[in-house]
């Protein structure tokens, strides 16, 4: 891809509307490119189409026309979620046309340094934490990407006095070529989204693009407890700043036990060991404002990015202490008759659900199930045996979830009919779960699956859960 201004008078195809597609279309149109935007949804489902049409941008909805991609097209910018298997992308590849995502475009047009955050789990919480830390330190962050604003829009607004804090998915990163964040954070890598990527190798390679163009002047923040992250550390050209929940590091951010008479006690401290070997306490683990070992990992990663950006350690500690979480990520919804209800709709893979259950100190009534991507969910078996008291399953995977629950010896197992109205289905699931629970238990929505079999998004799923809980 060339710089966007070099496409003046040339034909550009934007695949997919939504926030990012609209922002990219406007940018290229203002720079004088001949822009066509295509979305397979019907026009009545594309409210952004009228705005672009009014600007003189061609918008085609309802299908992917056979003549959309041709030799005169110079660039295709695709919505990250659109698979590479669709016909327009295949045609563009055959013709040798550059295919990128919005991230690549934003990297060309911004004058602000970027912090990029990716990982299988924990991206949104970590991104939010970093944004809050930088903001409290007066460093003028703009949070964008998968969270907040469209990245292209934010990139155009940003000045050299800003820092773009960007949540990035593997889908977005796969479509990058020259993208170079000043700080790149890889939180963890688990097998997920393989229906999109086709293999774990492609998934890892897409995540690794976060570091591809970094130099020794940049920083790569990596999870030292994750074997894939540790392997990638030997391949990056940036300065590596590791974090660890399990290991005391010679350099980096890690959790250190408090020692009394040469014996470790339960209190643990997040610390930063600098390159001189000096150790600086940041915060006690028990003081972090949101629960769960996975959130401690997120806190370590956020601290690394903030330290590299020049945020004082006391500011980092204050934000870690005061933050109470992001909606749909282990969000406390209500307490009813001693039963706690948590919304963790963002848990769209089994690993996220396992980590969430392990972070709770109560027996769990789990509401799970959703889009079937081919997993057998057997990795849930140990935590089902040890920590889960009852299951309410829904969605395409409900029978698979029930099978694992039965293997775990669970007696309280229910399914709900997903042919009903979606809100009614969620309401029934919440009622069934509440009936299984006793004071001191947790009713947890943590589906271990994507939401698209029944819902438009995990946010819609979580919002319906919360409404149902409040209406008990």
Automatic annotation (TrEMBL):
GO cellular component: cytoplasm
Keywords for the protein's UniProt record, in alphabetical order: ATP-binding, Cell cycle, Cell division, Cell shape, Cell wall biogenesis/degradation, Cytoplasm, Ligase, Nucleotide-binding, Peptidoglycan synthesis
Reaction catalysis annotation: UDP-N-acetyl-alpha-D-muramoyl-L-alanine + D-glutamate + ATP = UDP-N-acetyl-alpha-D-muramoyl-L-alanyl-D-glutamate + ADP + phosphate + H(+)
Gene3D superfamilies in alphabetical order: Mur ligase, C-terminal domain, Mur-like, catalytic domain, NAD(P)-binding Rossmann-like Domain
Signal peptide (UniProt feature, chain positions): none
Residues binding ATP: 119-125
Pathway(s) served: Cell wall biogenesis; peptidoglycan biosynthesis
Residue ranges constituting the Mur ligase central domain according to the UniProt record: 117-306
Classification via InterPro entries: Mur-like_cat_sf, Mur_ligase_C, Mur_ligase_C_dom_sf, Mur_ligase_cen, MurD
UniProt enzyme class: ligase
Location of this chain's protein in the cell: Cytoplasm
Entry EC number(s): 6.3.2.9
Single GO MF annotation: ATP binding
Chief localization: cytoplasm
Mur ligase C-terminal domain mapped to chain residues: 328-449
One GO BP: peptidoglycan biosynthetic process
Tree of life domain: Bacteria
Family: Belongs to the MurCDEF family.
Role description: Cell wall formation. Catalyzes the addition of glutamate to the nucleotide precursor UDP-N-acetylmuramoyl-L-alanine (UMA).
Protein name: UDP-N-acetylmuramoylalanine--D-glutamate ligase
Origin species: Paenibacillus rigui
């Amino acid at each position: 891809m060339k710089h966007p201004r070099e496409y003046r008078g040339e034909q550009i195809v934007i695949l997919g509307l939504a926030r990012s597609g609209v922002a990219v279309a406007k940018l290229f149109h203002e720079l004088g490119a001949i822009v066509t935007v295509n979305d397979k949804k019907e026009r009545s489902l594309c409210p952004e189409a009228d705005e672009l049409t009014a600007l003189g941008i061609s918008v085609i909805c309802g299908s992917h026309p056979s003549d959309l991609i041709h030799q005169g097209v110079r660039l295709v910018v695709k919505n990250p979620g659109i698979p590479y298997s669709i016909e327009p992308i295949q045609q563009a590849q055959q013709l040798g046309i550059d295919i990128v995502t919005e991230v690549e475009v934003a990297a060309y047009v911004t004058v602000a340094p970027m912090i990029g955050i990716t990982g299988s789990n924990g991206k949104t919480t970590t991104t939010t934490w970093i944004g809050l830390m930088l903001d409290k330190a007066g460093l003028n962050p703009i949070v964008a990407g998968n969270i907040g604003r469209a990245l292209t829009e934010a990139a155009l607004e940003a000045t050299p006095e800003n820092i773009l804090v960007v949540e990035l998915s593997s889908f977005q990163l796969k479509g990058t070529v020259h993208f170079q964040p000043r700080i790149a954070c890889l939180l963890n890598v688990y097998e997920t989204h393989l229906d999109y990527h086709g293999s774990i190798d492609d998934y890892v390679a897409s995540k690794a693009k976060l570091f591809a163009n970094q130099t020794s002047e940049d920083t790569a923040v990596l999870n030292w407890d994750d074997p894939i992250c540790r392997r990638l550390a030997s391949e990056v050209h940036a300065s590596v700043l590791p974090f660890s929940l399990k290991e005391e590091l010679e350099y980096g951010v890690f959790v250190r036990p408090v020692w009394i008479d040469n014996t470790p006690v339960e209190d643990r401290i997040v610390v930063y060991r600098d390159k001189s070997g000096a150790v600086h306490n940041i915060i006690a683990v028990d003081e972090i404002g949101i629960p769960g070992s996975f959130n401690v990992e997120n806190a370590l990663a956020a601290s690394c990015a903030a330290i590299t950006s020049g945020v004082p350690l006391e500011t980092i500690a204050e934000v870690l202490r005061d933050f109470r979480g992001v909606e749909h990520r282990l969000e406390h919804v209500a307490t009813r008759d001693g039963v706690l209800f948590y919304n963790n709709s963002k848990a769209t893979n089994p690993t996220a659900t396992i980590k969430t259950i392990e972070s709770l100190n109560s027996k769990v009534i789990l509401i799970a199930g959703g889009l079937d991507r081919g997993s057998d969910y057997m990795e849930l078996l140990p935590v089902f045996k040890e920590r889960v008291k009852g299951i309410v399953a829904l969605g395409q995977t409900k029978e698979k979830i029930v099978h694992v629950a039965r293997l775990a010896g669970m007696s309280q197992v229910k399914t709900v009919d997903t042919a009903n109205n979606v809100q009614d289905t969620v309401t029934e699931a919440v009622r069934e779960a509440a009936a299984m629970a006793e004071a001191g238990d947790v009713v947890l929505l943590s589906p271990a699956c994507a939401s698209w079999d029944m819902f438009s998004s995990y946010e819609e799923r979580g919002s319906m859960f919360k409404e149902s809980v409040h209406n008990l």
